[in-house]
Structures are given as structure tokens and as C-alpha cells.
Amino acid sequence: MASGTALIYDEEMTRYKLLWVDPICKIEVPERLVVSYAALQKAGLTQRCVALPVREATDEDILLAHSTEYLEAVKKTPYMTLEELMTFAVPYGDVYFHPNIYHCAKLAIGATLNLVDAVMTGKVRNGIALVRPPGHHSQRSTANGFCIFNNVAIGTLYAKKKYNVRRVLIVDWDIHHGQGLQYCFEEDPDVLYFSWHRYEHQKFWPNLRESDYDSVGKGRGAGFNINLPWNKVGMDSNDYLSVFFHVLLPVAYEFNPELVMLSAGFDSAIGDPEGEMCATPEIFGHLTHLLMSLAGGRLCAVLEGGYNLTSLPQSVCQTVQTLLGDPVSRISGLSSPSKSALESIQSVRSVHQQYWACFKHVAAKPGYEPHTKHSKLEAGQDGLQPGEETKEISWPEPLLRLPPPTRTAVALPAGLEDSVPESCKRVTETLLTPEEAAEKLGNLNIQDLKNKDLLQSLGNVQSLVDKIEKKQVRNGLLLVPDLRKTLAFAVQHALISLTDRVLLVFLGNEAPVEVRVDGKLMLVQFCSTEPHEPKSKHHIPVMMKGFGDVPGFLHAVLTLLLPLAYGYDPGLILVAMGKGSGMGVAAWTQLTSLLQGLAEGQMLVLMQQGDEEETIRTTAASLLGEPAQSLGTLGDPLPESMDAVEKLRLKLETQWGLLQTRGQNLP
Ligand code: Q9C
Ligand code: ZN
Prior knowledge:
This protein has 667 residues and is of the alpha/beta class. The protein has helices at 31-42, 59-63, 68-75, 82-89, 101-120, 151-163, 179-185, 237-255, 282-291, 311-323, 339-351, 434-440, 446-450, 452-469, 483-497, 550-568, 585-595, 613-623, 639-652; strands spanning 5-8, 50-52, 126-129, 168-172, 191-198, 225-230, 259-264, 299-303, 406-411, 425-426, 473-480, 502-507, 521-527, 539-543, 572-577, 603-608. Helix 1 links the parallel strand 1 (5-8) and strand 2 (50-52).
């Protein structure tokens, strides 16, 4: 399995700049790269990455996405006078040229292609190319929006051609619409293009009708172009996460990409003069993490925009650190998306429901007609007015993300120690005294108190929870003889010794623990038989029609569990799989991978002894940070599972705002 993170950077790409006065183009400065790379160095991240060289793209590479005429025209720019360069740029719009920009543009493509090569050959698992000029506005015969050639489009076509990659997901989180990417792939069903962008009902640049949510792709590509327009400025982490949970991730999993290309523009971060959004740099760590469970972890990030020289380097560091596998920072105080964001989410879900099974249950928008929109939109009710308040906005510097000395500790019964990778730290047997056990577990009987295996597993749980709390260990895996009792003990111990909230995710039918401490423990239980009416509003049973319904389970994880968990913001996660829950190993490791984005990855997994060695090994690998296995082509989820999840969402969405998916104009 591939490991390592590539970083591609070359100072040469800082050697072009705007040579005349142009208020629109003046933000695209060489310092963007300089400060980003310097921040990575200062954080000690450059030496942890695999440094890869850039190369010059060949004509053949460029012609993958551009016309000969356009290439030949750009080829002349190094020999132009200042005046000729100015004149050359005029017809394109919001772009400038420089005698060295053609050279840099070739390096930007070459950097992208070297990254694709490294990821596709398994030299690295993932990586990022820090490049200038950016690419996503560039079209077949057009420069546009600071972009000369379309780096990500060329990278995608190159991967398809050279490596025979079939399905590529392009995620464009830059705050501008990558219309160049849309045009390039809108008829291609093998490339799913997702973009969110500042739109303001077409009042924001590039002011295109086709940037709206109803551009879904054309011909065979219908359904494979997803636009999420932001119609207000001031969008924040709630809005970004909601779009991932309720739009991008469900579709992305259903699409099942073999490679993820990321148009990583950071003008969607707080403080950016273009985006005027409010999401802090930490959010990019989470967005990155959420994408790392797709395509077996094959992720190529390529810099696009980002013009605030403080939030840009911070966001780049968050992204790189996540690619490297460091624990993702906690996001506290999440609430719900804004009204305007919800309207966009609802619109894109309803217009795409005919293409994607994950949206099948979405109620069609009442009175929905693709070409008469915006009528019901409120005026200025939420969000900021454009240009307002974001000028001198400040935010706290992201906290350091220090990985604990040990990533993964395991406590396994004798004979099974070799079933997990070497790098797992073995927990030496810790025996609990019967007195200590009885203190935390009222319902132990005499037999239990004499049961050495049980007392040992309780001791192991206690020592692992303590080590995680002290940040000596990041996560752990325990195989226990009595799952229910050990789990109950783990919860008791965690609640007593931690001041923080605990999230328990339980797969199985029996109620695992009496939830007593309201507020400090949230229990999300996946079960296949009707559970008893929960005694606490923090006990959330999710009925699945059997655990074999992988698409249904995944839907519940993405659209229910993750929003709940992010809203709850636990300091520790306990995950337990009852024996014979029948959960497939791929779905199970998707769960354990995704949950590591919470609680700074502090997680303890408990499994009943007797589980298959393959499951144990894969679980340990997931805790060590190996990408989850891809789930393959998902069939349709069972309607019963979807109904159950939808019902729960409706019930809980007032309390847990990240569950919301609808604007106000629906019941
Ligand atoms: N204020 C990239 O981020 N100017 N390009 C827009 C509206 C063009 C942005 C003017 C912005 C281009 C890669
Ligand atoms: Zn941009």
C-alpha cells in the first residue's frame, strides 16, 4: 500500500508578476507561493513530504486540453514587449501576461503531471503541487482569471490516458467557479466535476448563467457536473461541512472514483478579498480528511487561488498536515448552515435527484422549474453584505497539531498479536483488581470478578483510555471477551476521568450501555432490530435493514452520523462492533477512517473476540492511517434504510443543525 505525501514546488514559479497597473490582477502575486512554502518549512512539514521536481509540460501534454492555435499564441508571449503583452491579455479577461509566464505555466502543468505520476505509480499515497499560474478558469482556447493553462484538466486527461484511470472526481473548493473545468468535462460521464463558488445570483464574477446549480452536465455527462452556488458571502465551516455531508460525499461515494483531483484554491478561506467567506483555515484539514477515504486515498491537490497572505499559508499547512496523516484539529461551536446555503443545498440535491440514488428520497422542489428561480429568495437576511466587515477580519492562528508519540496501541489475546502491523504498539497486560472493576461496574457478578480474562480486558481498556487522554497514544484497538461489559466499563471510566464529551458508536442490536450521563455521552447505535425506546435524547438508534445494506449504511454515516458527531464535538470516540453484526470490512473501515476526523483522532475501537483476523488487521491498518478500502460500485440503498435515516434527520434537525438539508420554503 502506497504511503507518503508528495510536495512539489519550484521557486521559478514565483518569477513572474504583474508589470502594469491593474486593480483586478494585482492580488495574484508571487508572494502567494513564497509565504505558503515558507509556512510549510516553518511548521517542519516540507521535510516530512517527498519533494518531487517540476518539469516543463510538453506540447503534447498541453494539447490534451487546449487548441494548437491557443498554444502557439501563448508561445509567442516570452518575446513580446510590455505593450504587446497588455494587448494580448485584453480579450481574455481578468488575466495578465509576463515574459516568463509561459515558462511558469508549463512548470505548473509539469508539477501537476509529476504529482499524478507519483500517486498513480504508488510512489506516494497523495500530494500537493504548489503552483502559479493557477488553472481552473483556463479553457480550450482561452486564458482567464489568472489562469493560462488548465493544470487540473490536463492532469485528469493525462491520468485517464496514461494510467487508464476510468473515473476521476474533481473537487474544486476554490471560491470561483472553475468554468474551464466544467466546459472540459461536461459531456464526460467518467469525470465528476464538483465546484462550489461565490455566485450571488450571477452577480459575482465570472457572472455565468452556467455556473448555477442547474448545469448538471450534458449528453452522457448529465449528472456528472455539480455546481453549488453560494448566493451570499460570509459562508463558514457550517456551510462548507454541510455541503460535504449532504451533497458532495454521498455522490462521490456513489461515483466511486479511482482518483481524486483537488482544485485547491484557498480564496474560500476567511479574510480572502475575493471570496469574502468566513471559514477558518482549520476547515481545510477536515475537507481534506473527508476526501482521503475515497479512491483508496489517491488524492492530488493542486493550488488554484488564495489571495490573503495570512489565511492562504495557514490553509495550505492544514491541508498538507492532513495529507500527512496528522490529527485534524477539533472544530468547536458548529451549529447549522445559513438559510441561503440551505437553499443552495436543497436546489442542487433536487436537480440531481434523477441522477443519483443517494438523492432518490429528496422531495422534488415544489414548483421547481430550472429557469425561473430566485423568486422566493429573501433579501439580505443572513450572511454579510458583500464587502462588509470582511476587510480587516481577524481569526486565531490555527493551533499546532502534534501527533502523540504512539499512533496506535493494541491489546489482543495471545496468538493474535501477529495479525496487526508491526508498527502497532502492544499493550502489556494490565489486570484490574476486582474492587476497581466493581467500583465502576455495578452489575458484575461473582463469576465476573473471578474472570481473569475479563479483568484483564477491563484493565487494558482503562490503561488505553488513560494513555489516549494523556496524549501518549492517539488511538487503540482492543479485542475483548465480553464486549458489553468492557464497553460499559470503558464508558464509565471515560466519563469519570475525562472532562470532555464522549461519542459512542455501536454496531449491534442489544443496547450496549445504559446512557445515564446526559450531555456528556452521545450514543449512536446502528441496529437491525427495533431498539427499545431510548431513555435519553443522546441515545440515537439508527435502524438498518440488516448490515448488508452497505449503501444504506454509508448514507447513514455520511448524512447522519458525521453531522451529529461534528455538531457534538467529542473529545473521545469509542467504537464498538458487536460480533456478527455482519458488517463488511470495507464499510467498517470507512467508518473508522471517517470518524478519525473528530476528537483529534482520539478513538478506541472495541471488538468482540472471535472476529476474523482479516477484520482485525484491516481495522488496525485504518487506525494507523491507511486509507479505507474503496467500497466499489454501490447498488441502490434499501428504501427502508433511507426512510429510517430521513425520519431521524427530520426529528433531530432542530437540535443538530448540521443535519438540515432544506431551505425554508419547504415544510
Ligand atoms: N472581484 C483564481 O482564483 N477577478 N482566479 C474577479 C471580481 C478574477 C480568480 C473580479 C478572479 C480570478 C484562480
Ligand atoms: Zn479562485
